[in-house]
Amino acid sequence: MLRVISIAIFWMCLSSTAYSQGNQSPKSSIGATVYQQYCMSCHQADGGGVPRMTPSLISTSYVTGDKKRLITILLQGLNEPIVVNDEEYYNPMASFSFLTDQQIAAVLSYIRTNFGNKSTAVSAQEVLQLRKQLSSKK
Ligand code: HEC
Fold first, then answer.
1. What is d(CA 13, CA 78) in angstroms, rounded to the nearest whole number?
2. Using a 6 Å cutoff on CB, does residue 32 contact ligand 1?
3. Which residue has the CA at smallest separation from atom 36 of ligand 1?
4. At what angle do helices 124-137 and 101-113 cross, to 10 degrees?
């Protein structure tokens, strides 16, 4: 019985990834893949986060607002009390500077245009520029 259930769950996971990837352009599927691999465990599949643990990515000013601030969060991590949807969060988020400019641009474009967000994309060039600026400040 357990085996049947686990096979069913496996099948569901498999078909849902195939479904979501089949429906996206190649570029946004890089973003989706990076999201699933590096962000989803904390921010959840629907971007909703976990109350009192991980803030939501749905229409927050961090996600939809200033691109530089958003890119900086990925390049340097975030470790300060922040308020999202009237709830305070203060758990550290590690830096993702090990990702390539392309991957960071793709995942940020992905979160800015999914979960009901309708912002503009982020380019690899913008990530590269900020990476240079931040490293020259150190
Ligand atoms: C280990 C859990 C964890 C992972 C993995 C993680 N985050 Fe976060 N994220 C957090 C926490 C906790 C905060 C709040 C940090 C603070 O309060 O200083 C946060 C804050 C944020 C914020 C700003 C606040 C908001 O909700 O708008 C953004 C944007 C964000 N994360 C994006 C990402 C992206 C993109 C990834 C994947 C590349 C990612 N995070 C991976 C835990 C995580």
1. 31
2. no
3. 39
4. 120
State the first-to-last Cα distance of the chain, in angstroms, to the nearest integer: 58
- Which residue's alpha carbon is nearest to atom 33 within ligand 1? 39
Q: 27-137 domain in CATH 1.10.760.10?
A: yes
Kindly report the pTM of this predicted structure: 0.84
Q: Give the distance (Å) from ligand 1 centre to CA of residue 43.
A: 7
Please give the single-letter amino acid code of residue 107.
Answer: V
Nearest to 103, CA basis, from 53, 14, 33 = 33
pLDDT digits (tens, 9 = 90+) for 85-125: 999 999 999 999 999 999 999 999 999 999 999 999 999 99
Nearest by Cα to 121 from 45, 56, 33, 31: 31
Task: Give the residue extent of every domain in the chain.
Answer: 27-137
CB of 75 closer than 6 A to ligand 1? no
80 CA to centre of own chain? 18
Dihedral angle sign, alpha carbons of residues 16, 18, 20, 22: negative
Pocket test for ligand 1, best of 34, 35, 42 (most atoms within 8 A of CB): 42
